[in-house]
Amino acid sequence: MSDTPKVATVPRRTPRPFRSNPRPAVVRQSQRGWRFTPWLFLLVPLALLVTFTYIPVANMFWYSTTDWNGISKVKHSVGLDNYVEFFTRPELFRVFWVSAYYLAASVIQLALALYFATLLSFKTRLKNTFKGILYFPSLINGVAVSFIFLFFFQPGGTLDSVIGLFGVSQDSMPQWLGNPDIINFSLAGTSIWRYMGLNFVLFLGAIQSIPAGIYEAAELDGAGKWAQFRYIIAPGIKPIIGLSFILAISGSLAVFEIPFIMTDGANGSTTFVIQTIKTAFESNKVGLASAMAVVLLAIILIVTWVQRRLVPEEEVNLT
To answer: Counting CB atoms within 10 angstroms of each CB, which of 12, 47, 139, 181 has the fewest?
Structure first.
């Protein structure tokens, strides 16, 4: 026998075939599926938006090219005749001037809301009480507000009684809702009281979102309240101011609730929307009323576009 020692042999392992990592494919599939997830959440809101907004607007455009009276089953196409009639009848287009009163009231309303929001964003005694007082009118239904001010402006009502305390006789009191020269001032004043609370809350929330450290640094640099408003608050809430301004313009052009309930458009208080409704349901000219609504929509879109061009939104780069 040989004395050569035996060496233990280790069996070789058969190399496994190379397999690519399947995980990237799974990740790619999950990412591809994630792209469609937001659209699934938006499906129902988009369906409601198309059904109750875009389709009615398309029907309004179609009605504006017909002579439909709102009752008959037959609608004859008249092309652009309704638009020609609207622009050639001054009594239909003149009611736009009534919106100027509400536009001026909207500017006053925004200025007051911004003033009170700025004032109550700093340390003020009883500021929570004042916040509730200013916001309370926006919680009241528009019909209730109209009836409140209907009694407020009536002869011998609340306003006349308060003025009488200063020695003014009742005979010299003006007809707040009967005089065509002052009726729109009264109605526009009502809209200021009605909608100032909503803009006040928007401005207050935007101001309070500004970090408090910025104010502290400004005070250390000797900046007063006006300087803080001019260089910190106003630039910081610029998008909210722009949004409120757009809503104010569109709202002043589409005023309906307050003048319709309080005066029914009498004594020169007819707004464009009231005139449109009367054209559609009293004169039975739905086609012409639809053309008027299209013109109003176009004016609002143009004003919004001009405002966006003059005061563009600042883009925020998150990268």
So the answer is: 12
